[in-house]
Amino acid sequence: MPARRRLLAAAITAATCLGAQALSYATASASASDGSSTETVVSRGVEIPTFYTPPATLPTANGALIRTEPLPLAVSLPTLDGPLPGRATRLMYKSTDSNGAPVAVTGAYIEPTATWKGDGPRPLVAVAPGTMGQGDQCAASLGLEHPLSLNGRTVSVGYEDVAIYRLLATGAAVVITDYAGLGATDRLHTYVNRLDEAHAVLDAVRAARSLPDTSLTPASRVGLFGYSQGGGATAAAAELQPSYAPDITLAGTYSGAPPADLAAVTKAIDGSELAGALAWSLNGFLQSDPTLRPLAEAHLNATGKAALTDLSTMCVGDALLGYAYTKSAKWTTDGKSISDIIASTPALQTFLNSQRIGTLTPSSPIRIATGISDNLVPHAQARRLAADWCEKGANITYRPVILPNVISPLLNHFTPLLADQGNAVSWLTDRLSGKPATSNCGVLPILP
């Protein structure tokens, strides 16, 4: 590894492991001329910068920039060529939600200092973050500024910074989406809504392309990168790209541990370390489809309703500390699990079926990776996504990550991310260099 990359990796590790920061985000001054509210938004004791408050009126075009500002990176090393890993810009851009309504989405763009050594002009990678939580303070763009943040009421870890910096080290530019409602203070984050997330990812590409003074060109290849929630977002974006964003040509997509079948995922996370994600899912469903609210009212008891409200402002760290191993049966009026209620309620089944990823045919190469012992975002449903796409003739590289079952569902899910991330970056870098991807659909039946 070159000395510059070793130094950068050491800095990332130090910031992630030791760099706890007290949360005291300065609130930027906001002009009321765009219709934005100037009222301070506070989430679990964290003042959300007014940059994240959307204006009353949004642009028409998807991906249109609403506002930008410089974003200070917590991990930045000065060099003769410029700061490593690069210069960051905070973004707000327009997207469209699952109901066809305009929505403001925030994120960040990083112009790398490293030289792109692959074929063609500097490429662009859109990173879709894994599960961060549902509170606005959990947004990935804020995690670039505060990798590990504590204030006694919330714990936010910018763990996606590692993947982002690895991609920047290749010389690729990176744009990160916060998703609809995460960061932006006007609505609740619609966790694992495939349309909202796919649109946010694709529109982040459009927003990055429209930024002035970058090294991107119209010929810059585009790739997508995501794991877990992010893997679902990139998978959905890849299959929706031909219809939603035909102006974007994808060179390749990495989809790690994608939650393609939410019915299976809902059952798996119930009672696990990340049981709090059930509430994020339910909150998101109710945000996307208010007609489901009467069902929630009928089935959730006081404890369940209080949990949904409490978790709506939490990050992953908070949920692990406060709701690990919670069983959803404690949240319901009849003692049934959320999965059982879904199975017996046609309206909920219909909604979850509409969120299924794999019903469309992507037109660009995709690498799906899943840990064979992953029982949090179950391996079987991720493998099923690869099989579904293979049956449709898509160019799929399926990679089972073979690791032992370590009992903990969270570790069974998180360890493949670390074990496979280098291979995922290398695969995507090859696609961004113009190298063709070879499908292994023919041998998928014999792979675990």
UniProtKB/TrEMBL annotation:
Keywords: Hydrolase, Signal
Electron transport is among the record's keywords: no
Coiled coil location: none
Signal peptide: 1-22
GO term, biological process aspect, one: lipid catabolic process
Family annotation (Pfam families): LIP
GO terms for MF: triacylglycerol lipase activity
The protein's name: Alpha/beta fold hydrolase
Taxonomic lineage of the native organism: Bacteria, Bacillati, Actinomycetota, Actinomycetes, Kitasatosporales
